[in-house]
Amino acid sequence: MINLNETKIEKTSPTTLLVTRTFNAPLSLVWSAWTQQELLDQWWAPKPWITKTKSMDFSEGGLWLYAMCGPEGEIHWCRIDYKTITKEVNFTAKDAFCDENGTPNTEIPGMNWSNTFSPTGDTTDVSVEITFVNETALEQIIEMGFKEGFTMAHGNLDELLLSLK
Amino acid sequence: MSKQRRDVFQAIADPTRRSILALLALQSMTPNALAEKFETTRQAVSKHITILSECGLVTSEQKGREIFYKLEAEKIKEVDHWLEQFRKIWETKFSQLDELLSNLKNNEQ
How close does chain B come to A101, measured CA to CA in Å? Predict the structure, then answer.
C-alpha cells in the first residue's frame, strides 16, 4: 500500500522543531509502536542502521537504553529518559548520547522531546516537538554538521545529531 | 528593543526575506534598489536585511560610495542541506513505521 502521508517540519520557536505526520493506523497501535521496545527496534533507526535495545522501562522516570548500529560496525549508545506519560495522548522525554552503561555524554547537550498522539477516525496524527537546549543550538548543529564534513549517504538522525549537538 | 536573535530558520521562514534572498541570489544590490522591489516601507525592508545579516545569510560590501548587499550562498546551502537530511531521516523512519503498522494491523485481523 502506498502511503502518501506527508511529513511536515516546522520551526515553531527559536529552539523548537515540530515534526508532524499522519499514520494509517488506530491510536492504540501507533502508541504501541512508539513505546514498546520490540516495536521501536523495528523502525526507530533509519535504514541501513538498526536499533538494539539493552534495556527498556517505559514509565515516568524510566529509561530506554539502546544502541544505534551502523552498517560498518559503528555503535552509538543512546538513552531516552521518560519524564511524563499520559497514555495514548502524550509523552515527554529527554534524549542523550551515552556509553553502554548509560552514563550520559555531558559534552553533548541532549534534546527534549514531546510526542503527542491524536486519533482522527481510522488514522492517527503524531506530532514530535524537539526542543534544543538554547537558541543557538540549532545553528550550531547546522554549522558543526557540515563544517566537520559529516556525510550522510543514507541519512541517520542520531548519527547526525551526535555530530551536531 | 531587544536584538533579533540569530536564527537561520527564522530568517528563511518569512516570505519577504525569502524574496530578498532570491533577489540577492541574482546579483548584489544597494539598499535603495532592493527597497524598490517591495511595496513595504524602506524601514521594513531594512529590518529584514538586518535579520538576514545577523544570521550571516547576507553581508554588505562598500563599493565606492554605495553599499551593496550580497548573498552568502554557502550559508544557505548548509541550511537547505541540513533540513533536507533531517526530513529524509524522518521520512525513512516513518515509512518503516508505516510498514510495521500495516503488518500489525494485518496480524490483528
Answer: 26
